[in-house]
């Protein structure tokens, strides 16, 4: 039966509390220093036939990873990750052992934070003066276009400058895809640096007046595996 897999982690040297899974209890499959958190009795194909169950499974998958992350470093896997058999999973762990152990060493004691930048609404007159005609109308329209362009250029410059500033403090940030004009940066930050991150946020906001900056809570290292 396929092994539904949530995450890879260092083989625990002391007892850890395994969260409840989507439909059943979870287990660890161990290959020397590396382990995988699995749900052996889950029929993933059955979930796909029911939208409500599938949505709940997605939420549970994330909950399991977050609860385990509170106890130990891990490499979270995408929802729906499965291996055909226990033997196949063990072979995968053995083949990629060194790679995964190095990644685990990198993220141990650290958390991922999502820095989101939301572009502020440009303060530009939405409509042209109704009394403007001919050349006046054309000039008013040109001024509005120029103002929009200049503010967009300022936003772009602030975004590029921010990325450079972040990289100097937190090496290797991951840039997300722009969504509706918003930008995202994923940071890997140690527990000791967490409080200081919010101080940096205030400074970054001052230097990005054309954006609204928000910072997520500490998350598992989704974008650093």
Q: Using DSSP, what is the number of strands?
A: 9
The helix content, as a percent range, equals: 40-55%
Radius of gyration from CA coordinates: 24 Å
Q: Indicate the proportion of strand residues.
A: 15-25%
The main pleated sheet reads as: 5 strands, antiparallel
Poorly predicted tracts of residues: none
The class by helix and strand makeup works out as alpha+beta
Mean residue pLDDT = 90
Number of helices: 6
Q: What is the global morphology?
A: elongated
| Cα separation of the termini | 26 Å
Secondary-structure element series = EEEHHEEHHEHEEHE
Written account of the structure:
The chain is α+β, with helices and mostly antiparallel strands and 225 residues long. The chain contains six helices and nine strands. Strands 1, 2, 3, 4 and 5 form a five-stranded antiparallel beta sheet that branches. A hairpin with a 2-residue loop joins strand 2 (27-31) and strand 3 (34-39). It is elongated, with a radius of gyration of 24 Å. 20% of the residues are buried.
């Amino acid at each position: 039966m396929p092994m539904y897999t949530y995450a890879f982690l260092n083989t625990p040297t002391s007892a850890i509390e395994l969260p409840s899974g989507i439909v059943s209890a979870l287990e660890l499959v161990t290959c020397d220093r590396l382990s995988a958190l699995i749900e052996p009795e889950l029929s993933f194909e059955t979930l796909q036939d029911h939208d409500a169950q599938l949505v709940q499974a997605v939420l549970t998958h994330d909950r399991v990873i977050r609860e385990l992350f509170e106890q130990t470093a891990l490499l979270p896997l995408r929802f729906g990750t499965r291996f055909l058999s226990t033997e196949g999973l063990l072979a995968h762990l053995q083949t990629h052992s060194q790679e995964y152990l190095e990644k685990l060493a990198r993220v141990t004691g650290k958390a991922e934070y999502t820095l989101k930048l939301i572009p502020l609404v440009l303060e530009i007159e939405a409509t042209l003066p109704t009394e403007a005609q001919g050349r006046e109308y054309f000039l008013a329209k040109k001024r509005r276009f120029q103002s929009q362009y200049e503010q967009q250029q300022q936003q772009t410059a602030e975004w590029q400058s921010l990325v450079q500033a972040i990289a100097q403090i937190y090496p290797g940030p991951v840039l997300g895809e722009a969504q509706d004009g918003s930008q995202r940066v994923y940071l890997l930050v140690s527990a000791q640096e967490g409080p200081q991150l919010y101080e940096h946020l205030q400074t970054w906001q001052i230097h990005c007046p054309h954006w609204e900056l928000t910072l997520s809570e500490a998350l598992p290292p989704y974008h650093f595996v």
